């Protein structure tokens, strides 16, 4: 495997993998201190994951809102507007 991919795999394993032991966490911190580029790459990767998570949440929120609109229709103008509409419908019905 190419060195860049191996490096990325190690960063992902640290960021996404199970919680490391105290020894592994200390070794990772030492590696980052000795290799500032590794620390920078890990920080960028962490920001990327946070951005993807935020984008996923926003997409899910949009999908849920679309489902809600589909099931319940667009939001009404409030109880007053709804009541006025019902009264108009009743008046039309009794005028006939």
What do these coordinates show?
The protein has four helices and no strands. The chain is mainly alpha-helical. It has one domain (3-95). Helix 1 crosses helix 3 (36-72) and helix 2 packs across helix 3. 1% of the residues are buried. The model has no long low-confidence stretch (mean pLDDT 89).
Describe this structure in a few short sentences.
With 96 residues, the protein is mainly alpha-helical. The protein has helices at residues 3-16, 22-34, 36-72, 79-95. The protein has one domain.
Specify the overall morphology. rod-shaped
Bin the strand percentage. under 5%
The biggest sheet amounts to:
none
State the domain count: 1
Helix and strand string, N-terminal first? HHHH
Round the Cα radius of gyration to an integer and report it. Answer: 28 Å
Percent helix range: over 70%
Let me know the number of strands.
Answer: 0
What's the total helix number?
4
* Terminal-residue CA separation: 82 Å
Average the pLDDT over all residues and give the rounded result. Answer: 89
